[in-house]
Amino acid sequence: MRRYTLAIFTATLLSSGATADTSAITNAHIFTSARAGEIQSGTIVISDGRIAAVGTNVAVPKGATIIDAKGGVVTPGLYATGSNLGVVEIELVKQTNDNANSSQTLSAAFDISYGIDPDSMVIPVARLGGITRALVTPVFGDGGERELLFAGQAAIITLRAGNSAVVKPKAAMVLELGEAGAGRAGGARGSTITALKADLDDVKWFASHRRSFNDGSTRELRLSKPDLEALIPVVQGKMKLIVGVHRASDIREALKLAREYHLNIVISGAEEGWLVADELARAHVPVMLNATTNLPGSFETRAATMDNAARLDAAGVTVSFANGDGGHRARESRYNAGNAVAHGLPYARAIAALTINPATTFGDGRNVGSIERGKQADIVIWSGDPLEPLSDATTIFIAGERQPMTSRPDELTERYRTLNGPLPPAYKN
Amino acid sequence: MLFVRKLVAISAAISLLSACATTQDDAAPKPAGPNLDPQVDSNPFPSTYKPFPSVPTAFVGATVFTGTGQKIDKATVLMRDGKVEAVGANLPVPAGYRAIDARGKYVTPGIIDAHSHLGVYPQPGVDAVSDGNEATSPNTAQVWAEHSVWPQDESFNAVRRGGVTSMMILPGSANLFGGRSVTVKNVPSTTMQGMKFPDAPYGLKMACGENPKRVYGSKGAPPSTRMGNVAGYRAAWLEAAQYARKWDAYRAGGSKGEAPPRDLKLDTLAGVLKGEILVQNHCYRADEMAVMIDISKEFGYKISAFHHASEAYKIADILAKEGICVATWAGWWGFKMESIDGVAANAALVHAAGGCAVIHSDDPVLAQRLNQEAAAALAAGRKIGLNISDAEAFKWITSNPAKMLGMLSRTGTLEPGKMADVVLWTANPLSVYALAESVYIDGALIYDRSNKNLQPKSDFMIDRKAGGTE
User: Is the predicted ipTM greater than 0.90, yes or no?
Assistant: First the structure.
């Protein structure tokens, strides 16, 4: 019964929400993630799924549905990166994992967008944590033995309740260097970079010699045709290349490679990023990091520290937060950001690292990531400070539509809220 | 940290001397072997931990979570000779105490992590030091986690910065019987014995469900099913009961004649049957927990706690009635089939049913923030209308884990006479912005955020690239 009701509720929202409705959030303490900065008490007008106005002296249009935030904090919807939302239901149930493959011929060509399930039971849990958009990234499914360097292509999704999640497929390419990359190139870093350069050279050659490749008059190339095709936008600098890398010296190698091949890279991981912060800033290379990775989990993260985000930000690097788990625990990214604040990151920068920074890093900054006129209305109203575990999202808009505020774990909780009823819980539906 | 190094050096020297003395005194030929009765020396790896030097200390003007569920404003906390001496509002500070202005700050018992793998799965996570799971047989009750603990794991220092003063370190969950756990005081030490919690009962790690059946089933060995798991537990308890009976009969006969064969595995299981070793049972699903309870009744032992216990909320009434603690998370769910029904309100629902809820880590990153995990668990409870105070929720990481470790009479609260394992926080520790400002173990200042000389570092980190602070 509950599920049925929810379905109707969602359908109603979808049919009427985005079209002509106008809403206004009033008495809001707004962190805009835009030039307007923090607005102590303001109004946001939402019309046709977009932000029509934001500020202190904004008139509420006649007939608008008013949501009184009562002084509560309002932020842009949070933007998850390094996420597996929609492609992993249960990690240890392999059939439910669509974020990795172990094919010997498809690496760069692996396109995660085809496997995304908008009805995933994990998405509503992340959404209740304030996440409205995500970069869903492939990982390696080969146990480190396959000698193919790329994991595949990431996609941008919306967490809006409904039938269509993918906003932009092929949003970025994923590569790992360092220890993991070495494992895919014979076991040592020296061969990873060499193999990578050879692959990139092949892609460039392939792009201008398709005909001779197709008629078989060329030497054999290491990568399959789909992989070569997929990498063309990367060597043209049109597709972001996410480079998973941790050690300071490996980050330097990644920067060198990007310079040499004119690659548009994003550093992911970057536990030792603070040691090369100035170099990252000078190269205008953004970073995705986990704010709570502070242990020397391997020899390539010996300098991991809670200060990493604060130091990179202070050096002028664009920092986005990526949660280590990426799916079931994606909702914790806001607490992790709070921990970065506790270790020196200015508050507004932490909100930016959860919102506008990932949006701009992945070419989505014109659409979402801040509360400013013209952007899609992905907005969250909070019961308190969003970086605190004791606060909750109370109202969530995605593209101007109010989202259902429940999830499968919430329904289970309700089912077992009281025990020892006359009939087993199976009858509570 | 000079005094720590001195202390370790001195205690090492003392134990060396006594060992030499024993050898020299043994002029007569020794008997052929050690006494085989497990009860004669049930503690062959004794703790050498001694509290670090301390001075009488008073926190003045603090907000206190006592660990018993109370909150006291404008409180004074007095510590002396390693013990909590008094806690109350506006108590005068006696002469000779180091007074610490704690106005605007919080004082709590040290956090106890009831499920840790520090030292047995240390940093860096390379195979050479990965010693947490003796996954070679479904019953390895003979192994002791303490023999895998690497005291140089930097995580000990990291979790201390998060206010953790004690923890139970367990073997992994590959086996039906994973081996003995060890409880440690979170003090820097060159040896495992130097951090071993004196006189703490051992635990026995047991595991339900997916892990044992996957690990052995995939090798073509039993168990490969949940029913295989249960048959494995029952067969082992039968054998242990016979073993215990044989030894009891031998002792009743004056320990004369040929002693029954000694078996390290059965020593541990018999210790459980005698109530000396506490069962710490990894178990996710409600239906499996109910079966484990029946097994415990069949063989007459008590389950101290179910660990992880994602579905505890489905049988919170039964668990409360049986007096079994539930050590769980707020945020972890859905990573395996048996955790698909995990909910954030699990601990709060267990608490509301009158049970013993514990927030544990199972993870060196989460262990640095158990206070925040408790806050997330509390938030989930409040969201469904459970009226639980901050101070009550703080029991989930202090007195309740102390209870499930069998240590509540000695630590876990700020009641007078208890070990002065105490944390001074910069703010309400349920806030993400609160940092442990200083950490005391047995009344001694072990960590001070503002004093570089009181910020221990493991040997592995000694050449750490400069500049990182924590």
Answer: yes
Give the total residue count for chain A: 429
Which residues on neighbouring strands pair with residue A242, listed in sequence order? A174, A266
Report d(CA A322, CA A308) in Å as an integer.
Answer: 13
User: What's the pLDDT at B415?
Assistant: 98
Angle at Cα B217 formed by Cα B331 and Cα B361, nearest 5°? 20
Q: Tell me the per-residue pLDDT of B420-469, one tens digit each, with 9 for 90 and over.
A: 999 999 999 999 999 999 999 999 999 999 999 999 999 999 876 654 55
* Cα dihedral: A375, A376, A382, A387 (round 10): -70
Q: Which helix (H) or strand (E) holds B159?
A: helix B155-161
Question: Which residue of B314, B328, B343, B388 is the best one to mutate when testing the A interface, meaning the one whose CB has the most A CBs within 10 A?
Answer: B343
CA distance B379 to chain A (A): 5
What gap in Å lies between CA B403 and CA B409, rounded to an integer?
8
Q: Which residue of B has its CA nearest to A300?
A: B124
Which amino acid is located at A108 in the chain?
Answer: A
Sequence-separated (6 or more) residues with CB below 8 Å from residue B116: B159, B167, B168, B169, B170, B360, B361, B362, B364, B367
Contact B469/A at CB under 8 A: yes
Segment A84-95 shows an average pLDDT of 96
How far, in Å, CA of B378 to CA of B431, rounded? 12
Exposed e or buried b per residue across A196-225, where buried means at least 16 C-beta atoms within 10 angstroms of its C-beta = beebbebbbbbbeeeeebeeeeeeebebbe
How is residue A24 annotated by DSSP? E
Peptide bond into B223 cis (omega under 30): yes
Q: Which residues pair with A78 in a beta bridge?
A: A131
Which of B210, B433, B437, B457 is most worth mutating to test chain A (most A CB atoms within 10 A of its CB)? B433
Query: How wide is the angle at C-alpha A309 spanned by C-alphas A307 and A311, nearest 5°?
Result: 65
What are the structure tokens assigned to A415, written together? 């089912």
Candidates B384, B339, B289; CA nearest to A121 is B339
The tens digit of pLDDT for each residue in B187-222 reads: 999 999 999 999 999 999 999 999 999 999 999 999
Quote the distance between the C-alpha of residue B331 and its chain's center.
21
Interface test with B, best of A85, A246, A274, A294 (most B CBs within 10 A): A294
Contact A299 B433 (CB under 8 A): no
Amino acid at A302: R
**Inter-chain CB proximity A419 and B316 less than 8 Å:** yes
The answer to whether residues B379 and B368 touch, using CB atoms and an 8 Å cutoff, is: no
Contact B334 A328 (CB under 8 A): yes
Minimal C-alpha gap between A273 and chain B (Å): 11
What is the Cα–Cα distance from A320 to A302, expressed in whole angstroms? 21
In whole angstroms, what separates CA A65 from the centre of its chain? Answer: 31
d(CA A268, CA A314): 18
Contact B469 A305 (CB under 8 A): yes
Nearest to B335 among A92, A272, A416 (CB): A92
- Nearest alpha carbon to residue A150 among A186, A200, A187: A200
- DSSP secondary structure letters along A197-212: HHHHHHHHHHHH-HHH
H-helix segments, B334-440 = 346-352, 370-383, 390-393, 399-404
Smallest Cβ distance to B430: which of A89, A390, A410? Answer: A390
Whole-angstrom CA distances from A73 to A80, B368, B378 are: 20, 28, 21
CA distance A186 to A277: 30
Does B34 touch chain A if contact means CB atoms closer than 8 Å? no
Neighbours of B413 (CB within 10 A): 25
Q: Three-class SS string for A68-120? A: ECCCCEEEECEEEEEECCCCECCCCCHHHECCCCCCCCCCCCCEHHHHCCCCC
